[in-house]
Specification:
Strand content: 5-15%
Shape: globular
Radius of gyration: 11 Å
Largest sheet: 2 strands, antiparallel
Length: 67
């Protein structure tokens, strides 16, 4: 089974605003286009940032993947 990914749509469902999402990506060296283009960012990469913002997003991605 492929690793779940965090997408822009999931971050918006968590009510994160687009400017904050872009800022978070810049802070952690993540290419925001990966979120917008639908490919997503692997949960392990998101969790590696170590922030609560990321943990909530990773938790949602895992729940939606049935994990």
């Amino acid at each position: 089974m492929a690793e779940p990914v965090v997408t822009f749509a999931q971050l918006r469902r968590l009510r994160y605003c687009a400017p904050r999402i872009r800022a978070w990506c810049r802070e952690h060296g993540i290419d925001a286009r990966r979120l917008r283009e639908g490919a997503g960012i692997p949960v392990s990469e998101v969790r590696a940032t170590g922030c609560g913002f990321a943990a909530k997003a990773a938790d949602l991605a895992e729940r939606e993947a049935g994990l």
